[in-house]
Amino acid sequence: MSDPVLSVRKLVKRFGGLTAVKEVSFDVAAGEVVALLGDNGAGKSTLIKCVSGVHLPDGGEILFEGQPKTFAKPIDARSAGIETIYQDLALANNLDVPANIFLGREMKHRLLGGLIKTMDDKSMLREAREGLKALDIVFPTLTQPIESLSGGQRQAVAIARAVYWKAKLMIMDEPTNNLGVPEQQKVLELIRKLRDQGTPVILITHTMPDVFAVADRVIVMHRGRKVAEKSTSATNSTELVQYMVGALDDFAAAA
Amino acid sequence: MALSTETSTPAEAARLPVGRRALLALSRLWAWAFLLLLILFFVASVPIFSGISFLSIRNSQNILIAIVPVLLLALGQTFVIISAGIDLSVGWVMSLASVLSALALRDSFDAGVPLPLAVLLGFCAAVLGAGAVGCINGIIIAKLKVPAFIVTLGSSFIVRGLALLWSENTTVVGLPDGVRAYGNESLVYLVSGDHPAFSVFAPPTLTGDMLRHMDRILPWPVVVTIVVVGMAMFLLHRMQFGRYTYAIGGSMQASLRAGIPVDRHIIKLYTLSAVTAGIGGFLSMLQFTAGSASIGDPLLLSSIAAVIIGGVSLFGGAGTVIGTVIGALIIAVLTTGLVMLNVPAFWQFIVVGAVVIIAVLIDQSRELIVGRHAGGSQ
Q: ipTM of the assembly?
């Protein structure tokens, strides 16, 4: 395995007396999809929020591209190249596709020697179209507010935005939730495409079929601890469920 | 594999039957259509009742002058409401600006400052005074997270107190005579009658009787307002500032996650809103050659009505500058026309109120026409 893109070492996060994440370590390498599996409250969201800069960990360290990092704010993680796609997508539904892809980083024309800058909507539209095409995403029109798009299409816009801005690691929080079956398939297809293009993906989920559909490895969490780390080809859903409910525990001795 | 479009509404909209599509287009353009119908109605009815023409040069200029203060309040409000905020302080901010600019102009002129410079000082006093109020509003809303409704309601009382205090509860008079020209002269003059004449910038030299035939076209306050409208359109529709305004109104979360400096932008929005109100106060001071604390407050609700009639959503995220201009025109045409039909003044309020409610109903009906898509593909 090549050098890991992300390396989490003995990460701890406490909320008052509750330890939500207990000394969890894992690596993510380029070009792999890692599923983070666990029941509600297992600590997977808290763990990932530490990586994406929402929470400041209380212990352990995060190495990104080999460098120890402290992300005090989500924007710090983003500028380092960690893009998180949340369940609520974080898109502005009243804006069109290019406006969303370029939100906060608009392309501009410089007028009067840079004194006045206007938005370069034409270039943004062109870039957005090319970015989507690279992912084989085709919309009939890009200049409608995205509230008229389906859930899967909006998910695709969020992914395209992350890809356009050269995400080095993509974290996706329950990306197939609230989607119909055909759209779930398309989102999973996109995740495979990201992996094939070399972008590692951490997939937070409790949907077993998603794990086997796209993940190369699976990490199972239970009550804040990592209880299993398996290659998906070396496990099955029955076994994973046993880890999820705490019946099996590979790291019991360490606890 | 491409994400197909079988569940998307743009495609659905294109598939709507012709009748519904026409209805949809009409619901988008209804404000234009309504304005046109109103003008046609008054053009036809006013001469019958009062024997004068509704769209005469003089009357059309009166409508434009009437629109100036309401529109200036509404322009800043458009930005604020698109960002899902509200600014209830603009009425009294306009009053404050009127008082401050009158005091600055009068006192500097009395101290020996030449008139054009004194007028400029009056402008600065209006814009800075108003801008300071807006900036404080914005800071409290953005940084201390107090709802905009509360903050601007409270500051409107404070500003009211200050305006009355500084004007000593009376009209600020004693302004130099030359001020009248700034507020009432115009860009173009047109003389009709026996000796027709036309001039730009300076009125033609006329003798007594001919003055009655002279029309002032585009008075300076109207010219200034047109410039401000142009700047607002540019700012909202062409610049990143506008994009941020829509984004914040559409989704605060998305804006924060996109790295937009949301707090700073909100402060700018409320400052902008107060500044356009301040320009309104300054222009009205020039027009009446006096500063008045009672000038702005009665216009607040009309300005919000103009914004809403113009299609700005109170939930934020939608609206245009030109929509607000149309909204303000509808109110001005309605009130002027009703006056010319000798309809008692209180009917104006009743009609404007009904138009506001109908405007929102039409906006909502758009979703019914298309058949609202619930997001997702369930």
A: 0.82
